[in-house]
């Protein structure tokens, strides 16, 4: 919306409404056809790369002219707590590498292609993002970067003149593609949880005509809209970042644990234990230290994780459910099943 509001910031309500519209459009695309969703992802990924390559090219040109005055580390924060919190915003930009694991069931030859896809994507993203940040600092000072709500837009306004409007368009396309990627992959996480009986049975169901996990996609869309109620994006990044890295850290902990408890288990993909151990040490740093520096934000992150406890107790631990409860939840599931035209595995309905 920035190109339409040259002299002022876009209204927050208008931005939220636009975000809701984007989520609804992408939800429809993901519910309608998986191929549509992957094509949308490809197109908007290419658009993002085009924008980044334009920025990198401009940065290289400025660097060749000798603009390195902002490359110094003057006034850099060295406090451990500030360093740990800064990881959340930094890692947020790289978030996405873990989403590939969510769609492993839909990958062709995952034993070969999953490590290959993660290796190529992480390497490419790291190179491109480092060069992009280098480009920003050929033109913008650290104070301008910190004070900007959209660094790429500020960079374009300062360097591209009348063509500055192109970068906000590319930024919008990039975020649009990012939302599509999250809907595409995270909905499969809900689906997998339901397959193991840890989430409502409705989430295991697939649309009869389109063969897409429609209920899981709709839940993801509703949660995404719920996040729009938080106005402070950096606080939201800290909430979700803490919960995300704590959850991933616990998952990675399973690797050395299972190597110890089940050494003979078949492992199609196997890594050296040094990597999960290093990852665990890093996770401890980025989760334990912020508890001291920002207890409120990390506390909210812990509460987000703990919301799963009553769901687990209700769905899994409570095995002796009364007849009225089972009948009521079954009716709700069947009503939604008819409404969405979805079918699931042949098993007794659960909450």
UniProtKB/TrEMBL annotation:
<protein>
    <submittedName>
        <fullName>Large neutral amino acids transporter small subunit 1 isoform X2</fullName>
    </submittedName>
</protein>
<dbReference type="GO" id="GO:0015179">
    <property type="term" value="F:L-amino acid transmembrane transporter activity"/>
</dbReference>
<feature type="transmembrane region" description="Helical">
    <location>
        <begin position="299"/>
        <end position="318"/>
    </location>
</feature>
<feature type="transmembrane region" description="Helical">
    <location>
        <begin position="163"/>
        <end position="191"/>
    </location>
</feature>
<feature type="transmembrane region" description="Helical">
    <location>
        <begin position="44"/>
        <end position="64"/>
    </location>
</feature>
<feature type="transmembrane region" description="Helical">
    <location>
        <begin position="236"/>
        <end position="260"/>
    </location>
</feature>
<keyword id="KW-1133">Transmembrane helix</keyword>
<feature type="transmembrane region" description="Helical">
    <location>
        <begin position="116"/>
        <end position="137"/>
    </location>
</feature>
<dbReference type="Pfam" id="PF13520">
    <property type="entry name" value="AA_permease_2"/>
</dbReference>
<keyword id="KW-0472">Membrane</keyword>
<feature type="transmembrane region" description="Helical">
    <location>
        <begin position="212"/>
        <end position="230"/>
    </location>
</feature>
<feature type="transmembrane region" description="Helical">
    <location>
        <begin position="14"/>
        <end position="32"/>
    </location>
</feature>
<feature type="transmembrane region" description="Helical">
    <location>
        <begin position="272"/>
        <end position="293"/>
    </location>
</feature>
<dbReference type="InterPro" id="IPR002293">
    <property type="entry name" value="AA/rel_permease1"/>
</dbReference>
<feature type="transmembrane region" description="Helical">
    <location>
        <begin position="84"/>
        <end position="104"/>
    </location>
</feature>
<keyword id="KW-0812">Transmembrane</keyword>
<dbReference type="GO" id="GO:0016020">
    <property type="term" value="C:membrane"/>
</dbReference>
<dbReference type="InterPro" id="IPR050598">
    <property type="entry name" value="AminoAcid_Transporter"/>
</dbReference>
């Amino acid at each position: 919306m920035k190109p339409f509001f040259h002299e002022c910031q876009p209204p927050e309500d208008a931005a939220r409404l636009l975000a809701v519209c984007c989520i609804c459009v992408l939800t429809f695309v993901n519910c309608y056809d998986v191929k549509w969703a992957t094509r949308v992802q490809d197109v908007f990924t290419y658009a993002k790369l085009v924008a980044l390559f334009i920025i990198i090219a401009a940065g290289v040109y400025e660097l060749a002219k000798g603009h390195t005055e902002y490359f110094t580390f003057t006034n850099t924060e060295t406090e451990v707590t500030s360093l740990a919190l800064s990881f959340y915003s930094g890692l947020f930009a790289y978030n996405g590498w873990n989403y590939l694991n969510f769609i492993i069931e839909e990958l062709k030859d995952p034993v070969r292609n999953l490590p290959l896809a993660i290796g190529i994507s992480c390497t490419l993203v790291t190179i491109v993002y480092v060069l992009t940040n280098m480009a920003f600092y050929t033109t913008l000072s650290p104070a301008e970067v910190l004070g900007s709500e959209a660094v790429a837009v500020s960079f374009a306004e300062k360097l591209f003149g009348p063509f500055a409007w192109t970068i906000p368009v590319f930024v919008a396309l990039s975020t649009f593609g990012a939302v599509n990627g999250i809907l595409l992959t995270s909905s499969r996480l809900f689906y997998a949880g339901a397959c193991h009986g840890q989430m409502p049975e409705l989430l295991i169901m697939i649309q009869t005509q389109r063969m897409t996990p429609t209920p899981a996609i709709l839940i993801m869309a509703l949660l995404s809209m719920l996040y729009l109620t938080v106005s402070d994006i950096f606080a939201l990044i800290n909430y979700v970042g803490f919960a995300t890295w704590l959850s991933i850290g616990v998952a990675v902990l399973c690797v050395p644990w299972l190597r110890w408890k089940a050494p003979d288990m078949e492992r199609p993909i196997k890594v050296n234990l040094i990597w999960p151990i290093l990852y665990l040490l890093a996770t401890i740093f980025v989760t334990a230290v912020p508890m001291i520096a920002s207890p409120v934000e990390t506390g909210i992150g812990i509460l987000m994780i703990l919301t799963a406890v009553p769901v687990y107790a209700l769905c899994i631990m409570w095995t002796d459910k009364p007849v009225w409860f089972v009948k009521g939840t079954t009716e709700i599931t069947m009503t939604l099943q008819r409404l969405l035209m979805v079918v699931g595995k042949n098993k007794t309905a659960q909450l």
